[in-house]
Specification:
Blueprint: H1 2-30, H2 38-60, H3 64-84
């Protein structure tokens, strides 16, 4: 007789687990999630990495013409990055 009672308790526990999972799924769907654009995020990452490389080159360069070119590139990338952020 003890086995039949344990089966009912196990079934009740499984039913409760399913109900908890469904409630958690409902809460998950209701909660607003920020929309992240993967293309925009990739572009921001790419520009940030490029900017750090340009700054590294600028710091390492002594030639005035090359420094002027790098400064123009840095300014351009900073403007493009500011538009995305």
């Amino acid at each position: 007789m003890g086995d039949a009672g344990e089966g009912l308790i196990d079934a009740d526990a499984r039913i409760q687990e399913l109900a908890d999972e469904r409630e958690a799924a409902r809460r998950e769907r209701r909660s607003p999630k920020p929309h992240i654009d993967p293309v925009r995020n990739a572009e921001i990452t790419s520009l940030s990495l490029g900017l750090s490389e340009l700054r590294r080159q600028f710091d390492a360069t002594q030639h005035p013409v090359r420094r002027k070119q790098l400064q123009a590139a840095i300014t351009d990338v900073e403007k493009r990055l500011a538009k995305l952020v």
